[in-house]
Amino acid sequence: MSNTYKSAGVDKEEGYQTVEKIKKAVSETHNENVLNGIGSFGAFYQIAGYKNPVLVSGTDGVGTKLKIAIDTQKFDTIGIDCFAMCANDILCHGAKPLFFLDYLACGKLDSDVAAEIVLGITKACKDNECALIGGETAEMPGMYKPGDYDVAGFCVGIVEKDQIIDGSKIQKGQKIIALPSSGFHSNGFSLVRKVFPDFNEVFEGKPLYETLLVPTRLYYQSIFKLLKEVELKGIAHITGGGLIENVPRIIPNGLCAEIDTSKIRIPAIMLECEQRGNIARMEMFGTFNMGVGMVVVVDADDAEKVLTLLDDAYEIGEITEGNEKINLK
């Protein structure tokens, strides 16, 4: 009997089925700027309507949150996480997401699972008015065990050069506003899984995995609602490293983000993680978002307008003079 690619562990037919299951949903994310569909070697996206455009790109993955999805066979939210981790990053510079590409690797391809993941990405793309224009599904027996998956993505956005937000306009006296997270998002799950080894235990009346798999919040609608009305001086996406590592990335030298931790609305699941894992509070703030998925810095005169425009936003601190860039008190 002669060897075939299928006998080596790669089923091309399953790949074709995956494409059929996602083709319609992917095409629905396209707009007039997408010049070709699935099947080309490269994806084409034309840029129009900008005077001095700057492309802003970001790439990321879902991390070990995927382990929970794999163990519970619940894949409908993972694609949203993949998109959000990339798109939320480029939002920090005032960039509108234009297009997204995904990469999915596995040991043995299941077209139903792959389609469920990609359909999550298309849902997120629609929410962000972004086109899913390409992707790669890699079946890699011997590298991944059957049933294992990894998902990553790449997002490109656009902003006028004179409208780039980079923190350079941050000054003493400006206010720091928190935009709540939807949970752990996609960071810190190696510690989360150590503290909560049983994903099926009941937490707040439902299986724990349902809380852990709540997808990363998409901030595009909120940020662009603010940008129409308010000048945002700085935006930070609170990902791995929490407030402690991410806020300083936008703070100019000689200034400090003074944050009052007593004002932060920490989710119950994170308090449970802290208590059950015997984790120090500062370790929590240096690992998880602690309920703050994004922060924006605005002039004091604009703070009330931000709180009015976004009814779930709230003030957590202000910019002061100092060399440490962040001070949690």
TrEMBL record:
Enzyme Commission designation: 6.3.3.1
GO molecular function: ATP binding; phosphoribosylamine-glycine ligase activity; phosphoribosylformylglycinamidine cyclo-ligase activity
Any one Gene Ontology cellular component term annotated for this protein: cytosol
Domain of life: Bacteria
Subcellular location: Cytoplasm
Keyword Transmembrane helix recorded: no
Reaction(s) the record says it catalyses: 2-formamido-N(1)-(5-O-phospho-beta-D-ribosyl)acetamidine + ATP = 5-amino-1-(5-phospho-beta-D-ribosyl)imidazole + ADP + phosphate + H(+)
Major enzyme class: ligase
Pathway, per record: Purine metabolism; IMP biosynthesis via de novo pathway; 5-amino-1-(5-phospho-D-ribosyl)imidazole from N(2)-formyl-N(1)-(5-phospho-D-ribosyl)glycinamide: step 2/2
Domain PurM-like N-terminal, residue spans: 53-159
Keyword Iron listed: no
Positions of the PurM-like C-terminal domain: 171-324
One record GO biological process: 'de novo' IMP biosynthetic process
Alphabetically ordered keywords of this record: ATP-binding, Cytoplasm, Ligase, Nucleotide-binding, Purine biosynthesis
Family: Belongs to the AIR synthase family.
Xref: HAMAP family: AIRS
Protein name, per record: Phosphoribosylformylglycinamidine cyclo-ligase
